[in-house]
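Annex B. Sample input.
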Amino acid sequence: MSDKRKDYISWDEYFMGVAMLSGMRSKDPNTQVGCCIVSPENKILSMGYNGLPRGCSDDEFPWAREGEDPLETKYIYTVHSELNAILNYSGGSLAGSKLYVSLFPCNECCKAIIQSGIAEVIYDSDKYADSAATMASKKMMEAAGVRYYQYHRTEREIKIRL
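Annex B, continued. Sample output.
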């Protein structure tokens, strides 16, 4: 009998990898965020990425970050990856699940995370840590008992030929 292989990826590497791969579906030219929601039994329940709502053409809505007219920027049209993943789930309750996301959730996504019963958030980047939205998210998660922590990169490189 041979031993099992030892270089397999961990659950955290697997689910954060799925989140990052999901983010690669985003049409946003500046920020690609992906999310993966996982059951307590380590089964993928849902995924999402930042993009426009169904039926809204990626070619007809703006992707600009700045502009005098808010209607000409992406911010009021795009759905964040976390909310997309929550809304994409059709299997019942998300209570007790974990959410892997490539960027720390904003305050609006945080509300949806809390309300859906997600128990844990594992994030990669916290590049907006000093923003009011991120500070509000952390305050709400702490108050609601949602555990959050930063993913510890292993620097493992995985190459997939498609």
